[in-house]
Amino acid sequence: MSTSNGKSAFFTMEDAKASFNLFCCVCGIGSLAMPSNYARAGPVFASIALAFMIFANTYATLKLSKVMLVAPSSVKTYGDLGEWALGKWGRFFTVVSQMGVCLLVPCAFLVLGSTLLDVLFPDSFSQIFWIIFMALMVIPVCLIPTLKESAGMAFAGCMGTVIADIIAVSVLQWNMRGHDSVPSPDVTLHQVLTCFGNLALAYGAAIVVPDLQREHSQPQRMPRVVVITILFISAFFIAVALAGYTAGGCQLSGNILYSIVSTSDPLGLAPLGFTADRGAVVMAYLFMQVHISIAFSTLMMPPFFMAERLILGMHQGPEIVRFNGEADQANVDLDMEIQEKRSYMQSSTPMDTVNRQVSASSLVEKTEGRMS
């Protein structure tokens, strides 16, 4: 999509689709713990931790996207990137770390989702039943073949978590109005480290960046998409954290949804001593349930892609040749310069692409967009 004077649009609909998937993957259960981070570590240490994680994750994800741009077209997954950079051991460690996140976080989704369903339908079934029920219900959603095709669903997941957080914070602010100033936390090292742990769970965009970039028809636009999305998410995190903390102070539990209703007695008093409007509680829990179901499928996309390659023999490509720093660094630097200047978008032939191992073979594909 381009404007009439030949300049490309700042943010296209396809960029928005990738952004929705990133947002759905990152902004979810992590946002629920933002007020509790301030409740544990205090506003000073929590703000420092949040600022550090914003910078570290934005920088790391941006660099990952740029590396994917200059990598050969045979590099399609996180594991491929690890092998290209560090050989077989690089593939092993990247696959283990990525699969750890992509498979363990959905387990946390199932546990949280079962708790939400138990609050929505108290005294109906056991938590184990709800876990099994939810696992069965998300299977059709997980079978959507690409993240691009699930962009509309990802948008619904984005709105689900935003609306759930807004309702939960509003319930806290309304029911805690008129109280004295919020109590300050007694900060310990353990509480500060727990704050960092919650933030590490919140920021997990990098695990789906290779998949999103592989499916984008103009992958050179992905660095901008990554930066804008993560900064927007971070601003949302800060707003939720401050709004929740100013209402409850150090009294908040680890999950803001658990602060507006008791999970053991959904129809009784909330942990902070008030009785929240049942309709508001139901809406907040329903919208978060929608988000969890959709985010589950987003995080399962990389494992399914890998399973299709290993079991079904799909997505096969040429053998990956490990990056040679001495021989290939100049080519990478030149490709990065080309990507930044975007000069290859105006030329039909990449410049000086003979005998270049690193990315010459993929420059044309990346100009036109490459799909798996």
UniProtKB/TrEMBL annotation:
Location(s) in or outside the cell: Membrane
Keyword Signal carried by entry: no
Molecular function, one GO term: L-amino acid transmembrane transporter activity
InterPro entries given in the database record: AA_transpt_TM
PANTHER family per the UniProt record, alphabetical: AMINO ACID TRANSPORTER, AMINO ACID TRANSPORTER TRANSMEMBRANE DOMAIN-CONTAINING PROTEIN
UniProt protein name: Amino acid transporter transmembrane domain-containing protein
Amino-acid biosynthesis listed as a keyword: no
GO cellular component: vacuolar membrane
Topology within the bilayer: Multi-pass membrane protein
Keywords carried by this UniProt record: Membrane, Transmembrane, Transmembrane helix
Span list, region Disordered: 344-372
Ranges of compositional bias, category Polar residues: 344-364
Positions of the Amino acid transporter transmembrane domain: 17-311
Transmembrane segments: 44-62, 92-116, 128-147, 154-176, 188-212, 224-245, 282-305
